[in-house]
Design brief:
Length: 419
């Protein structure tokens, strides 16, 4: 069984569906419970919310997840971070991988964030988002983890004491045996190796070179490659879900806390299509309870025929003003707490389908709703699967990564009743 630990919730759904697509029976876990028994899962993904928290706490939670997976028979561990390597200079990718590699006694650890299906490629150690370098992409304005350096060996070296090497694309092009022979040079405990990848072929090459590594790290591109090799080994066929998850439960509401460029476009599109929208203004009301109370009062006045939107997302200049006045961490914690309260209030009022934009925001919502896990359904967009939650009152959830999906994704997913 492959065990994956994801540093945020939308990242967890992104790799869960990458495994599922290959035909692996995949379970997603939002809350660790010692009593959980996994029946015949080929891949298990644990969603953590540790991307931006204090590194000591992040390490602690990642190790708890590791031990939980090991106790249930995970043979290979994938640590999933963002395909744009989102992290702060003091963490969290470095400290968490340091702890996981020590605990697993890993000889070398590969780092492969490239995910061509999402337009993320790595060449000569530099990460690209579509046609631009990471540092020139909208990721430079991220509210919590602004990425202003594209050369990943430099970024990772700032987060760890371990040596960081690069296997560049010329070496990848020579095939898996060549990578295996190069990795032998790094076969001392705790050697870190970033590997370039431009397309699915490169990822397949890397996936087969690292098939026996106890610890691998990366994003959905690597998960798909490793999942494919694993499915082949198990004799499983690719699986495209045809269930009705995500298409039948009403009322539906969209919640957006992501300030990523694509989410801002999706919000504009939704408003333009006439969906009612309510902005959470933390600058004016820096109080989670009050923001939630007002948002739910507003929701109660809507007809719900066209799925409503509740959002806090702002473009970079306005975001910066809020963060300067309130402090970055305080603004996030007020808004995440408000989103959690709003989600609980919506479910109490009968909402059956929630579309949530943003990984941290998704973590806040799922945690507030006390959801243990769910079944991965069809993809509304690449890397964005519907999830039907487990438990007595299932709801359908779409946890959307900030930059994923076409501009009409929120509009299409929230839908219009009887349309
Ligand atoms: N108006 C605002 N002012 C300050 N902070 C905000 C505002 N709106 C949202 N935020 C915060 O910005 C953060 C956005 O992170 P989140 O992970 O939800 O989105 P994302 O990074 O775009 O998504 P992903 O990680 O999936 O790519 C959250 O902590 C959220 O509370
Ligand atoms: O890898 C990605 O880009 C996403 O799965 C993600 O991590 C969103 O936060």
């Amino acid at each position: 069984m492959i065990g994956a630990i994801a540093d945020d919730f939308t990242g967890a759904t992104d790799i869960a569906v990458a495994f599922r697509r290959q035909g692996l029976k995949t379970t997603i876990i939002f809350r660790l419970d010692e009593k959980t028994v996994l029946s015949d899962s080929d891949a298990v993904v644990i969603a953590l919310k540790i991307r931006t928290i204090d590194a000591v706490d992040a390490v602690d939670r990642a190790l708890t997840a590791l031990h939980w997976l090991q106790a249930r028979g995970a043979k290979q561990i994938l640590y999933k971070y963002c395909s744009t390597f989102d992290s702060r200079p003091d963490g969290n990718i470095g400290p968490v991988v340091d702890a996981l590699s020590r605990s697993l006694n890993a000889r070398h650890v590969i780092f492969v964030p490239a995910s061509p299906q999402h337009g993320r490629t790595q060449y000569m150690g530099h990460l690209f988002v579509d046609r631009t370098l990471l540092s020139e992409s909208p990721m430079r304005h991220h509210p919590l983890t602004p990425m202003r350096q594209s050369h990943l060996p430099t970024v990772l070296s700032e987060q760890t004491e371990h040596d960081v090497a690069l296997i560049d694309h010329r070496a990848v092009a020579q095939g898996p045996e060549h990578i295996v022979s190069l990795l032998k040079e790094f076969d001392t405990p705790g050697s870190y190796v970033l590997i370039d990848a431009l397309d699915e072929n490169d990822l397949r090459t890397i996936g087969s070179a690292c098939a026996n590594d106890v610890l691998i790290t990366g994003a959905a591109g690597l998960a798909a490659a490793v999942g494919e090799a694993h499915a082949r080994h198990l004799g499983k066929q690719p699986d495209y879900d045809h269930s009705n998850i995500g298409h039948e439960l009403f009322p539906a509401v969209a919640l957006a806390g992501s300030c990523s460029a694509r989410t801002l476009e999706q919000i504009e599109f939704m408003k333009h299509q006439g969906h009612p929208a309510h902005l959470l203004n933390a600058l004016e009301t820096p109080d989670a309870d009050l923001l939630a109370h007002r948002a739910l009062g507003w929701y109660d006045e809507q007809t719900h025929a066209a799925g409503p939107l509740i959002y806090s997302s702002l473009p970079p200049t306005q975001l910066h003003i809020t963060q300067q006045h309130l402090g970055t961490a305080r603004a996030s914690s007020i808004l995440e707490a408000a989103m959690g309260l709003i989600a609980s209030g919506l479910v109490d009022r009968g909402a059956r389908r929630l579309i949530v934009a943003g990984g941290e925001t998704s973590g806040a919502v799922v945690t507030a709703l006390n959801i243990d896990g769910g079944v991965i359904g069809p993809e509304a967009a690449t890397g964005v699967p519907w999830i039907r939650t487990t438990g007595t009152k299932p709801i359908d959830l779409l946890l959307k990564s900030g930059n994923f999906g076409e501009p009409d994704l929120l509009t299409k997913s929230v839908g219009k009743e009887n349309s």
